[in-house]
Amino acid sequence: MALRACGFIIFRRLTGCVPPPDNIEYLLLQTSYGEHHWTPPKGHVDPGEDDLTTALRETEEEAGLKAEHLGIIDNFVWNLNYEVRGKPKQVLYWLAELKDPGTSVTLSDEHQDYRWAGLEEACSLAQYQSLQDTLRAAHGHLQIQKDKK
């Protein structure tokens, strides 16, 4: 059975002189363990906990962002499957907008740094192709939503 984790791809829209779609930045957290990789907030599902509750809990624990800080984007859940130390792992990511772009991020001990980054920088930080694909899918979803309006 695969390990299961859930989290959020969190973005903010910059206001002012930066035109869309370059006004979107994604939140990545740098782990304080292992290879110090960059990832959106996520964590393991606790027994009896549903996936979305896990994503909200982990985001608050790891980044200090509560449910009321986030606007969850409809019709986007990305399923990532990969192996960690030879064991299968599944991660579900929802997409959420930080309602107030100035809201502070407060890191847990699990992370040593965070960064708001445009799509290309976020993909460069992410390193893993599967996470890069996830970020690009999220960005594409936002573009489709914008075009529908």
Produce the secondary structure layout.
Layout: E1 3-13, E2 24-31, E3 38-39, E4 42-44, H1 51-63, E5 70-84, E6 87-98, E7 111-117, H2 119-126, H3 129-148
Parallel strand pairs: 1-6
Antiparallel strand pairs: 1-2, 1-4, 2-3, 2-7, 5-6
Helix pairs in contact: 2-3
According to DSSP, the number of beta strands is: 7
- Give the overall average pLDDT: 92
Helix coverage percent: 25-40%
Biggest sheet character = 7 strands, mixed
Structural class: alpha+beta
> In angstroms, what separates the terminal alpha carbons?
41 Å
Percent strand: 35-45%
Shape: globular
The low-pLDDT segments are: none
> What is the CA-atom radius of gyration, in angstroms?
15 Å
Order of helices and strands: EEEEHEEEHH
- Helical run tally: 3
Report on the structure:
By secondary structure, the chain is α+β, with helices and mostly antiparallel strands. Helix content is 28%, strand content 39%. It is built from three helices and seven strands. The protein has helices spanning 51-63, 119-126, 129-148, and strands at residues 3-13, 24-31, 38-39, 42-44, 70-84, 87-98, 111-117. Strands 1, 2, 3, 4, 5, 6 and 7 form a seven-stranded mixed beta sheet that branches. A hairpin with a 6-residue loop joins β2 and β3. The longest helix has 20 residues, at 129-148. The radius of gyration is 15 Å and the shape is globular. The model has no long low-confidence stretch (mean pLDDT 92).
